[in-house]
TrEMBL record:
GO BP annotations, alphabetical order: detoxification of nitrogen compound
GO molecular function per UniProt: 3-cyanoalanine hydratase activity; cyanoalanine nitrilase activity; indole-3-acetonitrile nitrilase activity; nitrilase activity; nitrile hydratase activity
UniProt family annotation: Belongs to the carbon-nitrogen hydrolase superfamily. Nitrilase family.
Domain of life: Eukaryota
InterPro entries associated with the record: C-N_Hydrolase (IPR003010), C-N_Hydrolase_sf (IPR036526), Nitrilase/CN_hydratase_CS (IPR000132), Nitrilases_CHs (IPR044149)
Protein name: CN hydrolase domain-containing protein
Keywords: Hydrolase
Length: 357
């Protein structure tokens, strides 16, 4: 098994299509195989409470990634709609406040309907820049929010979505829970693509379900900027024999509304406008456990690498977790993929219809 790791370099020259308008430097790795997929992970911050402006920012980032040759672009958890870092929504057990309720009202207004006009715009971005797009969003269904990932192909087709199965800690008071009907792995011309969000990546059963569906490019939008996150991503790459693309936001206090409109609970007094509240750490890892790009803790940026799809077979030779390294006579896993609805309606069948049937 090769342990060779190529050097990363910082692109300082202006790409020919970019016309000198590059937003962020791109960290890249070169490759020369015929089975290469150029992948880019976006590390950037939401424009909080301003979804139209965030979509504009997303388009600028996609344009730059495409100029640098990206075929696949992964955008962080909750990029559209925002990750409410530090906010408590003034929740306490058995108590709510008027401000907390209004904070939720504003957050709900920043979320998007799926399908909806924002989804159509993202589809058009993917088509315009000819990229496969994996986008973290806050999805609104009625008055319930979901932390979701949307998938688009390079022709602008909306492929589907994944809803976060298990929100973490206080997220459970703000977001609903996904079910087994949105754990897709899409078979695309650049590989089989799926996603798990933040700490649900630590759920072995969910990972195993995606391995069983043949995932090759495992996308992991996250809000976890701790250095320990890289170990989890490396383990998943080795365990699944797949590429892992982890995208996180890089945010400073000034990227969120100022107090008292928005308050970082428990830490607001110690923060300055330039204080880093999410340090990123986005990365790309090969099926052999080699860190191809990142982690980047320095600022907003585009993190890119060339994915040699031949590495998947090289890694599976060592370990195929749902194949030759499985023990189905000892262990089994049952995935319930049908949607779980709170209310189901059964149409009344008339006597005439019964006769016809």
């Amino acid at each position: 098994m090769s342990t060779h790791q190529q050097d990363m370099s910082l692109v300082t020259s202006t790409p020919p299509i970019n016309n000198g308008n590059q937003i962020f430097p791109e960290i890249e790795m070169s490759g020369d195989s015929s089975s290469i997929v150029r992948a880019t992970v976006v590390q950037a911050c939401t424009i909080f409470y301003d979804t139209p402006a965030t979509l504009d920012k997303a388009e600028r980032l996609l344009a730059e990634a495409a100029d640098n040759g990206a075929q696949l672009v992964v955008v962080p958890e909750a990029f559209i709609g925002g990750y409410p870092r530090g906010s408590s929504f003034e929740l306490a057990i058995g108590a709510r406040t008027a401000k907390g309720r209004d904070d939720f009202r504003k957050y709900l207004a920043s979320a998007i309907d799926v399908p909806g006009p924002e989804v159509e715009r993202m589809a058009e971005m993917a088509r315009k820049y000819k990229v496969f797009l994996v986008m973290g969003v806050i999805e609104r269904e009625g008055y319930t929010l979901y932390c979701s990932v949307l998938f688009f192909d390079s022709h602008g087709q909306f492929l589907g979505k994944h809803r976060k199965l298990m929100p973490t800690a206080l997220e459970r008071c703000i977001w609903g829970f996904g079910d087994g009907s949105t754990i897709p792995v899409f078979d695309t011309p650049i590989g089989k693509i799926g996603a798990a969000i933040c700490w649900e990546n630590r759920m072995p059963s969910l990972r195993t379900a995606m391995y069983a569906k043949g995932i090759e490019i495992y996308c992991a939008p996250t809000a976890d900027a701790r250095e320990t996150w890289l170990a989890s991503m490396t383990h998943i790459a080795l365990e699944g024999g797949c590429f892992v693309l982890s995208a996180n936001q890089f945010c400073r206090r000034k990227d969120y509304p100022p107090p008292p409109e928005y308050t970082f609970s428990g830490s607001e007094e110690s923060l300055t406008p330039d204080s880093v509240v999410c340090a990123g750490g986005s990365s790309i890892i090969s099926p052999l456990g080699i860190v191809l790009a990142g982690p980047n803790y320095e600022g907003e940026g585009l993190i890119s690498a060339d994915l040699d799809l031949g590495d998947i077979a090289r890694a599976k030779f060592d370990f195929d977790v749902v194949g030759h390294y499985s023990r189905p006579e000892v262990f089994s896993l049952n995935i319930k993929e049908h949607p779980r609805k709170a209310v189901s309606f059964t149409s009344k069948v008339t006597k005439d219809e019964t006769v016809k049937n």
